[in-house]
C-alpha cells in the first residue's frame, strides 16, 4: 500500500433489535390528555416499543450486534473495537460497551460508550471511522442503543408520546475501495436546558426522591427550530466537503424524531420522500438507536443497494448534531 492510498470504513453488516411491547397512541391517550390525531399530525409517530423487564440497553445492543456480525460474516474474534452510542447506559460504570463486550464473548479489545444523546450513533461511527482510517482498527462494532422510556415522565404529554426504545448496530471493516466518505460533528452546550435530563451523579441527584428526579425535559418547539436549522447546515456542509450536488444522494437516513423535521431536511435536499428512510411512525424517537434502526430497516427491506450514496444525520440533546456520508 502506498502512503497515498486511502483506507475506507465500509459497512459490512447491520442489525437491529426492538423490545417486545408495542405501545400505541391510543394507549397513551388513556394516560395523558392527548390523541392519536394530535400525535400523528404533529410527529408522524403511530406507535413505539417500550422495554420491559429483562430488556435493557445492553440486551438490545447484544441482539442488534449479533445480527450485524452475522450479516457481516464476522465472529467475536474478529472485532477489534466496540463503540456504543447511548445516553441510557445500564449502569453508570462499567460502560455498556464493556457489558456488551462480555455478553458477546469478546475479550481484550477497547470498548467504550459515547454519550451524544440522539446523535450518539453518528458520533460513534465517526470515532470508529477515525480508528479504521488510521489503521489502528480493522473491524469495529458500532452500536446505538437506548431504553429512554425508563426515564420518561409518563404524565408529561409533551415528551412521553415521543420516545421509544431500540437498538441498531453496524460492523465497519477496513476496505480499500469504498465506505465512509466524510463525517461532520457539531455541538452547542449553551442550549442544554432545551432538552435534558437534569440529574446525574455529580449534580442534581436526589436520593430521597422516587427515581431520584430522573426525567427528560424538553422545550419541544425551540428544539424543533434548532434541529431544522442545524440539520440544514450540516447537510450543506457535507455536500460542499465532498463536492456533491444535492441530487447526488441516493438515500437520506435521518434521525427519527419528528416526520416534519425529516420532511424539512428532505425538502432542503430536493429529495422525494420515497428516497428518505422513515421509521419514526413505527419506532418513535429511539435517540441513538434511531439512525442504525432506520439503516438496518433500509438494508433488510432491500431499499438500500450496494454502491449507493447514503446520507445519515442526527440532532439531539447537548445540543449535538452531525452527519455521515457513505457509499454503501
Ligand atoms: O431527538 C432529539 C430532538 N428532538 C426533537 O427534535 C423534538 C423536536 N420537537 C418536536 O418534535 C415538536 O416540537 C413536538 C412534537 C414536541 C411538539 O410539536 P409542536 O408542533 O412544536 O407543538 P407545541 O410544543 O408548540 O405545542 C402546541 C400545543 C400546545 O398547546 P397550546 O399551548 O397551543 O394550547 C401544547 O400544550 O400542543 C400541546 N401539546 C399537546 N397536545 C396534545 C403538546 N404535546 C401534546 C400532546 N397531545 N402530546
Automatic annotation (TrEMBL):
Swiss-Prot/TrEMBL GO biological process terms: fatty acid biosynthetic process
Active site: 118, 255, 285
Pathway(s) this gene product operates in, as recorded in its UniProt entry: Lipid metabolism; fatty acid biosynthesis
InterPro entries in UniProt: ACP_syn_III_C, ACP_syn_III_N, FabH, Thiolase-like
Beta-ketoacyl-[acyl-carrier-protein] synthase III N-terminal domain residues: 112-189
GO molecular function, one term: 3-oxoacyl-[acyl-carrier-protein] synthase activity
GO CC term (a single one): cytoplasm
Domain of life: Bacteria
Compartments in which it is found: Cytoplasm
Quaternary assembly: Homodimer.
Cited PANTHER family: 3-OXOACYL-[ACYL-CARRIER-PROTEIN] SYNTHASE, BETA-KETOACYL-[ACYL-CARRIER-PROTEIN] SYNTHASE III, CHLOROPLASTIC
Xref: NCBIfam families: fabH, PRK09352.1
Designated name of the protein: Beta-ketoacyl-[acyl-carrier-protein] synthase III
Species of origin: Solilutibacter tolerans
Amino acid at each position: 500500500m502506498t502512503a497515498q492510498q486511502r483506507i475506507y470504513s465500509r459497512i459490512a453488516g447491520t442489525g437491529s433489535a426492538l423490545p417486545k411491547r408495542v405501545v400505541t397512541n391510543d394507549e397513551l391517550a388513556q394516560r395523558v390528555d392527548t390523541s392519536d390525531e394530535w400525535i400523528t399530525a404533529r410527529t408522524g409517530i403511530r406507535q413505539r416499543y417500550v422495554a420491559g423487564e429483562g430488556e435493557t440497553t445492553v440486551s438490545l445492543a447484544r441482539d442488534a450486534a449479533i445480527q450485524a456480525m452475522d450479516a457481516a460474516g464476522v465472529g467475536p474474534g474478529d472485532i477489534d473495537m466496540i463503540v456504543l452510542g447511548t445516553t441510557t447506559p445500564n449502569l453508570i460504570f462499567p460502560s455498556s460497551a464493556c457489558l456488551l463486550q462480555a455478553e458477546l464473548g469478546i475479550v481484550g479489545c477497547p470498548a467504550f460508550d459515547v454519550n451524544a444523546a440522539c446523535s450518539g450513533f453518528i458520533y460513534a461511527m465517526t470515532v470508529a471511522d477515525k480508528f479504521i482510517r488510521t489503521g489502528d482498527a480493522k473491524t469495529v462494532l458500532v452500536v446505538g442503543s437506548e431504553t429512554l422510556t425508563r426515564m420518561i415522565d409518563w404524565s408529561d404529554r409533551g415528551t412521553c408520546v415521543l420516545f421509544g426504545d431500540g437498538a441498531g448496530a453496524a460492523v465497519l471493516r477496513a476496505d480499500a475501495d469504498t465506505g465512509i466518505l466524510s463525517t461532520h460533528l457539531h455541538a452547542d452546550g449553551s442550549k442544554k436546558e432545551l432538552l435534558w435530563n437534569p440529574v446525574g451523579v455529580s449534580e442534581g441527584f436526589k436520593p430521597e426522591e422516587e427515581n431520584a428526579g430522573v426525567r427528560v425535559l424538553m422545550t419541544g418547539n425551540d428544539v424543533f427550530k434548532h434541529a431544522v436549522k442545524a440539520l440544514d447546515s450540516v447537510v450543506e456542509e457535507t455536500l460542499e466537503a465532498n463536492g456533491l450536488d444535492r441530487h447526488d444522494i441516493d438515500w437520506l437516513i435521518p434521525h427519527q424524531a419528528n416526520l416534519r423535521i425529516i420532511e424539512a431536511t428532505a425538502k432542503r435536499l430536493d429529495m422525494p420522500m420515497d428516497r428518505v428512510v422513515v421509521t419514526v411512525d413505527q419506532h418513535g424517537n429511539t435517540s441513538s438507536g434511531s439512525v442504525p434502526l432506520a439503516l438496518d430497516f433500509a438494508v433488510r427491506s432491500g431499499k438500500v443497494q450496494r454502491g449507493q450514496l447514503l446520507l445519515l444525520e442526527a440532532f439531539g440533546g447537548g445540543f449535538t448534531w452531525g452527519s455521515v456520508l457513505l457509499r454503501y
